[in-house]
Design a protein that fits this description.
Elements: H1 2-6, E1 15-16, H2 38-47, E2 53-56, H3 63-70, E3 74-79, H4 82-93, E4 101-105, E5 119-124, H5 147-164, E6 165-175, E7 178-180, E8 183-185, H6 187-198, E9 201-209, H7 216-225, E10 233-240
Parallel strand pairs: 1-9, 2-3, 2-5, 3-4, 5-6
Antiparallel strand pairs: 6-10, 7-8, 9-10
Helix pairs in contact: 5-6
The structure holds S-adenosylmethionine (SAM).
Length: 241
């Protein structure tokens, strides 16, 4: 674990790329659509101090909770899928920590169990609209919504996040664009505008290179025949309240 702290360099530019996604502690790539632990690690180290409170409203397999614990921060992680909550809890089991790690089944659109102005950093990794479906029929699972409904729910998530974040503190969203009928749907910029419209100030747009996407092979065949580029980046949008 000493290596974990010694060999790490904080990102200093607006392009992030992690070819080795990070497999320390209980991290692995096995949960479809999880983020590299280097992302929450960078955010936590840059924007918080020990014992601060981190919130991840789309916790998934628990990457942010594990990183918070390893870095001596408290964390609240929320996910709408009870099966996913079990995965996150299992990934946390082996991590020794004296911090508070709260893993809660809930909805990012209604976090009424969190007080106003109480969180030091929010790390959001929502579904990229309906590109990957995270459940079959869970109400308010954002991955089951069409684009219009998705933006409406994202407005609610943004205002809930604004409510619980302390003033002068940071929120980050990882998001990617989509392609429909050969054209780009700029999901990233649309989500960016939603967070700005709620009152957040945009501090950074980081381009995150995508590696090892499960669907790359399938798309490489398709783009050979058609005239468009394979999307190989995501946006990490960083805002301040
Ligand atoms: C992209 S994944 C997050 C992956 C996570 N960063 C990780 O490393 O495992 C998105 C997650 O959002 C959850 N989700 C979808 N709609 C939600 C909602 N309304 N409230 C809370 N979680 C939701 C899904 O169940 C899924 O686990």
């Amino acid at each position: 674990m000493q290596e974990y702290f010694n060999n790490f360099k904080l990102e200093t530019t607006s392009i992030w790329s992690f070819p080795n996604r990070g497999n320390w502690a209980t991290h692995s790539g096995s949960f479809r659509g999880n983020w590299s632990p280097y992302i929450p690690k960078n955010l936590i180290l840059r924007y918080t101090k020990e014992n601060d409170w981190i919130l991840d409203p789309f916790l998934g397999s628990g990457t942010t909770a594990v990183e918070s614990a390893l870095l001596n921060r408290n964390c609240i992680g929320v996910d709408i899928n009870p099966k996913t909550i079990q995965i996150a809890k299992k990934n946390m089991e082996a991590i020794e920590t004296s911090c508070h790690i709260i893993i809660k089944h809930g909805n990012a659109c209604n976090m009424n169990f969190i007080k106003n102005n109480s969180i030091d950093l929010i790390c959001l990794h929502p579904p990229y609209c309906n590109i990957i479906k995270y459940s079959k029929d869970i109400e308010d699972d954002l991955s089951l919504l069409n684009e219009e409904e998705y933006y409406k729910k994202m407005c609610i998530v943004a205002s809930e996040s604004y409510r619980v974040l302390k003033k002068q503190k940071y929120l980050a969203v990882l998001i990617a664009d989509m392609r429909r009928n050969g054209n780009i749907i700029p999901l990233g910029f649309n989500v960016m505008k939603i967070f700005q419209s709620i009152g957040f100030t945009l501090k950074e747009i980081v381009i995150k290179e995508q590696h090892n996407c499960r669907s790359t092979e399938k798309w490489e065949g398709i783009i050979k025949k058609q005239c468009f580029l394979l999307i190989k980046h995501e946006y990490l949008l960083i805002f301040k309240k």
